[in-house]
Amino acid sequence: MTAPLDHAAPRREATVRRDAEALQVRVRRGSAFQAYAVARRANQTVLDVVTEIQREQDPTLAYRFACRVGMCGSCGMTVNGRPRWTCRTRVAAVAEEGVLTLEPLRNLPVVKDLAVDMEPFFEKWRRAHGYFEPGEAPPEDFAAVLPDSGPRREADAGIECINCGVCYAACDVVSWNPDYLGPAALNRAWTLVNDVRDQGQAARLDAVAGDAGCHSCHSHMSCTEHCPKALAPTFAIAGLKRATGKAALRRLWRKP
């Protein structure tokens, strides 16, 4: 009778040890949260956790990812209240107490679980004229743009945006005013305003100067604070405010 008791004790201790090391994960699914337990591992990312849940515990869990290395931006979620790329977010950095709460990105319609519909986000790019306009008769050869020119330096940082939507989810103005174009679309417009080859500047400045445009920004800096690529959409928006103001003054001076 003694031997079985001696063997049972280590098994109970091992079970307690595993439970203590388990990561408690709460995932928003519709209007409620669903709880999961996932083993903690070295160098574990939040995307690793979601993938393990989907593959080993609940195949109905919906989420989105592609590259897993911070290039596509499609794995964005709200992690413990903050919008992030989950592929580049270490569990150890955001869940020190062993609790992880995952929700879809704010300010976008939810398709299912952690996957959101990005169509409104990209529609605002279109509204902000966030596309290159070559004009009716573009030159046949490539235009030379000096890398040290003022406009090129102004556009340098903004062109690194990969459209992940994290800044859009972090923006309080979008939450208050769903028509607001948002930091990503305005950042894109600013890069094109500084593109000396573009022929659509007048229409673009008109598009971003409206009630839902750059002047609605309250400069809370949430987009700049949360950008995974350390870009500064707030400063791009400030540039648009200056540019649209100058355009308005030019129109006034031209009046007879």
TrEMBL record:
Keywords: 2Fe-2S, 3Fe-4S, 4Fe-4S, Iron, Iron-sulfur, Metal-binding, Oxidoreductase
Entry GO MF terms: 2 iron, 2 sulfur cluster binding; 3 iron, 4 sulfur cluster binding; 4 iron, 4 sulfur cluster binding; electron transfer activity; metal ion binding; succinate dehydrogenase (quinone) activity
Involved pathway(s): Carbohydrate metabolism; tricarboxylic acid cycle; fumarate from succinate (bacterial route): step 1/1
Reaction catalyzed: a quinone + succinate = fumarate + a quinol
Cofactor-binding details, from the entry: Binds 1 [4Fe-4S] cluster.
GO-annotated biological processes: respiratory electron transport chain; tricarboxylic acid cycle
Keyword 4Fe-4S on entry: yes
Enzyme Commission code(s) on record: 1.3.5.1
Domain 2Fe-2S ferredoxin-type positions: 23-105
Cofactor: [4Fe-4S] cluster; [3Fe-4S] cluster; [2Fe-2S] cluster
Family listed: Belongs to the succinate dehydrogenase/fumarate reductase iron-sulfur protein family.
Record's subunit section: Part of an enzyme complex containing four subunits: a flavoprotein, an iron-sulfur, cytochrome b-556, and a hydrophobic anchor protein.
Descriptive protein name: Succinate dehydrogenase iron-sulfur subunit
